[in-house]
Design a protein that fits this description.
It is built from ten helices and ten strands. It is of the alpha/beta class.
Length: 291
């Protein structure tokens, strides 16, 4: 199999055998959220798109979004050639089963030319801070002049993004790439698009918001490990995982408490639950950019 440099987020998903269609209460596979992406980002520019469209979904994983966007475009009298670019071969296998073309590559460096349309959804934070601008520059280079980039970003206030980054970067979470995750605020994300070289950058609106708890992050990246250890009755590994969980949750919930007290619910997005745990709400702005 072709060796491809993987983002820290892709490494984490592969190591933990994550099914991206099921995380965050199946956010990424719900038709309501797919429709929202199209309504906010695609529908307003539909008449500006050519009849024949060469389209790639950057970091598109199993092809859920690419398939939905393609069907919508075909239903609106376009001929579409669709590809999914991703560094996760497990996800791309699912995209192929959907009948989509795939390209195993890192979206920071994958080579395309003269594309009419690129989409990207909740991918930027999978990559280290120093690589995020490069991904957007690669999108610019991959588009034809006048081509479009529709980008839904996991974002929020600077405080909200800083808190989520701190929690996911805790070493006790044991997520591949620990220490390298960076969520971008709405302001920072807007500036990244402008600095990448797009001639037009517009915050078109928002997709449905989402939320996660420190407990959910733990389950995503350690649940499979614990299950396998229990199947093997490996008490040493089980005790180690449970110890890490206690330490992680103490630190993560401690961060939530400190941020909530210092900055308040509005800026942090933090909700204190009745059981004493916390849940962090965040936004999904959609940027529509043109080369």
């Amino acid at each position: 199999m072709k060796r491809v440099k993987k983002s820290v987020g892709t490494q984490a998903d592969l190591a933990s055998k994550v099914d991206i269609t099921k995380v965050h209460s199946s956010y990424f596979s719900k038709k309501l959220n797919l429709k929202c992406f199209v309504d906010v980002g695609l529908k307003p520019i539909n008449r500006k798109l050519p009849q024949k469209i060469n389209y790639v979904d950057f970091g598109g994983g199993p092809g859920v979004l690419a398939g939905y966007v393609s069907e919508w475009l075909v239903g609106h009298n376009h001929q579409v050639t669709t590809s999914v670019a991703d560094a996760n071969p497990v996800f791309l296998y699912e995209a192929k089963k959907r009948g989509l073309k795939t390209k195993l590559c890192n979206i920071h460096s994958c080579q395309f030319a003269n594309l009419d349309l690129i989409t990207m959804r909740a991918v930027l934070h999978y990559n280290q801070r120093g690589e995020q601008l490069g991904i957007l520059k690669n999108a610019v280079q991959s588009l034809r002049m006048g081509g479009w980039f529709i980008h839904q970003v996991s974002s929020g206030t600077e405080i909200n993004c800083r808190l989520r980054s701190e929690i996911v970067n805790l070493t006790e979470l044991s997520r591949a790439g620990t220490g390298k995750y960076h969520w971008t605020s709405i302001k920072e994300t807007l500036e990244l698009h402008q600095n990448a070289g797009f001639l037009s950058v517009k915050l078109a609106g928002y997709a449905s918001p989402a939320a996660w708890s420190p407990e959910e992050q733990w389950k995503r990246f350690n649940g499979q490990k614990l299950l396998e250890a229990k199947k093997q009755n490996n008490q040493r590994i089980i005790k180690n995982i449970e110890k890490r969980k206690r330490l992680y949750l103490a630190k993560a919930n401690g961060l939530c408490a400190v941020y909530l007290k210092k900055y308040g619910k509005r800026d942090t997005g933090v909700e204190r639950l009745s059981n004493g745990q916390y849940r962090i709400h965040y936004q999904y702005p959609i940027f529509v950019c043109q080369k």
